[in-house]
Backbone:
């Protein structure tokens, strides 16, 4: 079941405090970017984010249960954050982006 526009808009509204958030459609689902880095995605009306060391540490410090799920069969497990907790969700996305390398520059076509 593809992600609904309503759920997509809800997630983007919850993350407005981050500023630089965007999505790219991908086969009925969405890849989530912050500061130009792919930090997770929205799959079947679920926000799933990368389990980087800083994100896991933040969840542990907050005493939150660490829950994993698959975005689709054969994919790597991703974290399932509580998107209703707006402040924590934004902190998690910032932490993940800080852990990830800078995006590779796009090559110029000749």
Residues:
């Amino acid at each position: 079941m593809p992600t609904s526009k309503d759920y997509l808009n809800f997630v983007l509204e919850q993350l407005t405090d981050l500023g630089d958030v965007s999505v790219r459609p991908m086969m009925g689902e969405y890849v989530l970017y912050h500061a130009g880095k792919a930090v997770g995605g929205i799959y079947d009306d679920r926000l799933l984010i990368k389990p980087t060391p800083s994100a896991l540490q933040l969840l542990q410090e907050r005493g939150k249960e660490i829950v994993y799920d698959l975005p689709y069969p054969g994919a790597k497990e991703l974290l399932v954050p509580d998107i209703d907790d707006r402040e924590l969700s934004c902190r998690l996305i910032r932490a993940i982006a800080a852990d990830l390398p800078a995006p590779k520059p796009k090559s110029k076509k000749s």
